[in-house]
Structure formats: C-alpha cells, structure tokens
Task: inverse folding
C-alpha cells in the first residue's frame, strides 16, 4: 500500500504566514494526483511536508500505514524530482542515477540492472556515459526522473518538473509521464501551476488557494462543476467568462449592466430574487445567434487552425468565445450571442460559492 494520508496538516512560516492551512487529503494507492494552484498558494510546501523536507506545525502525515511526521526523508521510501533537475555536473548520467543506490550499498550488479532498466524505460540508454552539460533540457529531465525510478519508492513526488522545458517538449514529457505511471503502477504526487498539465495528467486534482484545499475532484468534475468562482476561473484555457449582475424573477433571469439572460430554475439552486451573483459561461458555450439577447462587438480574432478564439466586448465587459474556423468574424463586427443555458454557472458575489 502506498496511500498518502494527511490529517489537519498546518505549516506556518515566520511573520505568521500560513503556507498550509488545516489540509486533510487522502491520495489513493497507485493514483496520479496533481496539486494545482497559483504561485504562493502552498502547493510546494505541502509536497515538501510529505517528503520530510519541512516539518508540520500540527496534523499527521501517513505514507502507507506509517505515521511519518518524525521520520527523516531517507526513511520515508519516497523519491522526489525537482524543478531544476539537481544533477551532479561532474558525474555521468549512469553515476547520477546510481548515486543513491551506492549510498545504500546495494550490490554492483543490482545497481547496474536498475539503472539500465530505468534508462530503457526513459529512452536514454545511449546517454549513460555523458555528463549533464552534454544533455538537452528534456534529456536532463529524463535523467532526474530515472534517478527517482531506480530507487523503486512507494511514492514519487514531482515539483513542477516540466516548467523549464519549451512548449513542445512539455507536451511530449506529459505523455511520457502518463505512460511511466501506467507502467510502474505506483503513487505519484505532482505539483504544478499549469492547469493544462493538471487536466491532462491527473486522475484527481486538488486545487489550492491561500494554503487551503479548495476542491478535490477528477478533471471533468472540476471543469464542469467548479465549487466556487476561483476554481471556475482557474480551470480552463481560455478561462471562464464571468459577469457580475443580479437574479430577477418573473421570468427568472440574470440581469447585468449590459445584457439579460433567461435562467433555468435548476441552475439557480438556492439563489433568490435580487441576489447579487456572478454569471459564468465557458467560451465553447457561447454561440452566434440572430435571435440572441446579448449584443457584442468583435475586437480580436485568433485563428488557431482547428478553432477560432473571438475576443468580444459586451458593453463595458470583456468576453471570449470559442467557435469553428468556418465563421468569418472581423474586428468591429456587431454580433448577437446566446449562452447555452444548461451550461451557465451562477456564483454568489459575497461567498463566491456556486449556487447549485
């Protein structure tokens, strides 16, 4: 069992900065779990607490069935891959990958077998005699991952490992990490600020803000049923469109300073007439409709080949629409829009929680 369990974990730094605020979380055996959030939200601190590089001020951390609060990192049976690779420049790739095994005084033949097996998995067999300075960024990242694999740990910890790679390499490494998880069948905790990485890699995602876990769910649930306005705006590229306004009755509708949209009762949930809310709608749930009630002006048209992102102005408010490339829209064009009423989200303006 390589389950990771956190119970009411707290970490405070100097001057009362609450980096991790009473976080309780269960990461399942063999799960690929992603911790997602903006810079400064506490996600790396949470990972370092699991690794033993930081000590919690309160709460309990379990790896498997063991309470590890007072165990050193080397006693926790984990392997961590850092953002900056942390390779020894004077050692070859083979020596870098074998270093931790030599410290554990494993037999030479077993060390060679483990290193060569990991190198084959990662496609770096031909690089074992090179030094890190002779490698590309993607190759160095594979070596760092290989150094973790050879240890055969209960849990892998990844701290934004792809952030130093270019866009094309990141896409390729995401696929490699997914295949690696399927092959090794072990628990992975992966920290990132990139929601595309989180959505493509994670079986479940924990979204953090200000040291708190805001929502834990699978990627599609986070995308389609965000618990609050923060999650709604953080998940999705381009982000969800958000418009402040008020709920009105007779008929039930949302009214902003610039437009009115009829609402389905099920989406209003516990909302009440004259309640101040924020309406959210994703770019793909907006369409051009001659009978639409929302009047907009095209500002920018981004052609992406398989789709077009259209940046619009609705009165004084900005809006992004995703549409098919066949539609020809030019800056300055006036269009009428409809929102897919079944995919509208309503958030209370004060609490920012979703109403339904």
Result:
């Amino acid at each position: 069992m390589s389950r990771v369990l956190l119970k009411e974990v707290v970490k405070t730094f100097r001057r009362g900065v609450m980096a991790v605020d009473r976080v309780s979380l269960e990461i399942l055996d063999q799960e690929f779990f992603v911790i997602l959030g903006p810079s400064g939200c506490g996600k790396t601190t949470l990972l370092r607490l699991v690794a033993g590089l930081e000590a919690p001020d309160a709460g309990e951390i379990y790896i498997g069935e063991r309470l590890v609060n007072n165990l050193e990192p080397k006693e926790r049976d984990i392997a961590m891959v850092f953002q900056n690779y942390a390779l020894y420049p004077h050692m070859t790739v083979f020596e870098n990958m074998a270093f931790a095994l030599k410290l554990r005084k494993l037999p030479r033949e077993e060390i060679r077998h483990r290193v060569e097996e990991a190198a084959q998995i990662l496609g770096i067999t031909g690089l074992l005699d090179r030094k890190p300075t002779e490698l590309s960024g993607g190759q160095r990242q594979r070596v760092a991952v290989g150094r973790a694999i050879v240890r055969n740990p209960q849990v892998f910890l990844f701290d934004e490992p792809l952030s130093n790679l270019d866009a094309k390499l990141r896409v390729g490494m995401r696929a490699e990490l997914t295949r690696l998880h399927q092959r090794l069948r072990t628990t992975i905790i992966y920290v990132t600020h990139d929601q595309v990485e989180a959505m493509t890699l994670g079986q479940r995602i924990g979204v953090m803000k200000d040291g708190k876990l805001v929502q834990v769910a699978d990627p599609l649930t986070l995308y389609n049923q965000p618990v609050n306005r923060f999650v709604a705006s953080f998940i999705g590229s381009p982000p969800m469109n958000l418009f402040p306004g008020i709920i009105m009755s007779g008929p039930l509708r949302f009214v902003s300073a610039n437009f009115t949209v009829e609402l389905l009762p099920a989406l209003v949930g516990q909302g009440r007439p004259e309640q101040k809310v924020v309406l959210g709608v994703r770019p793909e749930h907006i369409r051009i409709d001659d009978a639409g009630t929302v009047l907009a002006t095209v500002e920018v048209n981004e052609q992406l080949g398989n789709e077009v992102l259209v940046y619009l102005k609705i009165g004084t408010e900005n809006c992004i629409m995703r549409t098919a490339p066949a539609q020809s829209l030019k800056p300055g064009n006036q269009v009428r829009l409809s929102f897919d009423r079944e995919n509208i989200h309503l958030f209370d303006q004060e609490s920012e929680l979703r109403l339904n």
